[in-house]
Amino acid sequence: MRLYRNLVFATVDALGEIFNEGGYADKVIAKTLKRDKRWGSRDRSFIAETTYDIVRWKRLYSEIAEVKAPYSRENLFRLFAVWATLRGIELPDWKQIEPTPTRRIKGKFDELSKIRKYRESVPDWLDELGVKELGEELWEKELHALNEQAPVILRTNTIKTTKEKLQKELQKEGIETESIAGYPDALRLKERANVFKTEAFKNGFFEVQDASSQKVAEFLEVEPGMRVVDTCAGAGGKTLHLAALMENKGQLVATDIYGNKLKELKRRARRAGAHNIDPREIESSKVIKKLYGSADRVLIDAPCSGLGVLSRNPDAKWKLQPEFMENIKKTQEEILKQYSRIVKDGGKLVYATCSVLPSENQEQVQKFLKSEEGKSFSLKKEEKILSSETGFDGFYMALLEKK
Ligand SMILES: C[S@@+](CC[C@H](N)C(=O)[O-])C[C@H]1O[C@@H](n2cnc3c(N)ncnc32)[C@H](O)[C@@H]1O
């Protein structure tokens, strides 16, 4: 593989923003890719994938390169040199890249790979937490799976098309996909491609959504004509799926504390042809109180650590802090108690997270069931999805019924 100066420099700039200025990898990469209109799809995937790789393996590569935060430009080039060397790519003789002894890099890699926190590249505190929550063996497997590059999965928008028709449309645009057993609306890309550029996307025939995430809306057992509330709707990944399962019939209230996310939801809903969504920003507790006792179905896709989606969001390893973990658990507990009151008698509630930690998942549900607010609910079923078992995101979902 030949290394192109402008692509490597763009990657190093992106890494500087992520590591030194706290930028979010997805946003920084999206901005970087806008820098040069002449970049083709290969150039763009070089920048995106190399940046994600170095973010993913930050601790391991820093240890090998003997560099520390805050990273000087010279140090960022060192990290890049480690990345290239470990992939067998010949380093160019640019002045920014010092001659790096390949044998030394590989030797250090072999030595550090014996220790999990370096091999899987995680901060000490997170490694300790993972072991405490899942046990040594399961954490090791899960962490390894979460360091793999995530596959690209689409969810067919059944409001507008069928999976078979979508597959043909994409094929016409040069994109090959395959079905996934057990996931009725999902298609997996055989090769990575920028699906957002396709006519099929512009026409609202699909959304990009991980296979595990596609299970959540199904778990809620919605039916056309119901009154459903998606309490932590964000930009609407699951809201849009719920709308499709409800066949656009009934009422789907989508709330979130961030109005800008709901704006994005509205845009996506228009593209998807979903007409039964009523977005409501939670500006005060009144917005939720007004909904008490009114819904057949309630989804709480709770804010969480996001540890189950590390494969698509590897910078969370470095951005998460122990204090955040404590606070988010309190938020989850409060949200469950408050938002469960939206469910009417005989109605159902799904509590879901994209975390693999029992303390954010089954332990929260158990605590809720023992609380005053949870007394009238019973647990119907729950599913713990591990990335090491499915190859998709780590997720948790529980279906509760109100007596
Ligand atoms: C896991 S994300 C939701 C993802 C979204 N459901 C989807 O499928 O695309 C959690 C969401 O909860 C929102 N949130 C955080 N605290 C909240 C609260 N107290 N009430 C409602 N939403 C909240 C966040 O803004 C975020 O959008």
From TrEMBL:
S-adenosyl-L-methionine binds at D256, D301. One of its GO terms (biological process) is methylation. One of its GO terms (molecular function) is methyltransferase activity. InterPro entries: MeTrfase_RsmB-F_NOP2_cat, MeTrfase_RsmB-F_NOP2_dom, RCMT, RsmB-like_ferredoxin, SAM-dependent_MTases_sf. Residues 142-403 form the SAM-dependent MTase RsmB/NOP-type domain. The active site is at C354. Its EC number is 2.1.1.-. The keyword Transferase applies. It is an enzyme of class 2 (transferase). The keyword tRNA-binding does not apply. Keywords: Methyltransferase, RNA-binding, S-adenosyl-L-methionine, Transferase. Gene3D superfamilies: Sun protein, domain 3 (3.30.70.1170), Vaccinia Virus protein VP39 (3.40.50.150). Belongs to the class I-like SAM-binding methyltransferase superfamily. RsmB/NOP family. This is RsmB/NOP family class I SAM-dependent RNA methyltransferase. It comes from Salinimicrobium gaetbulicola.
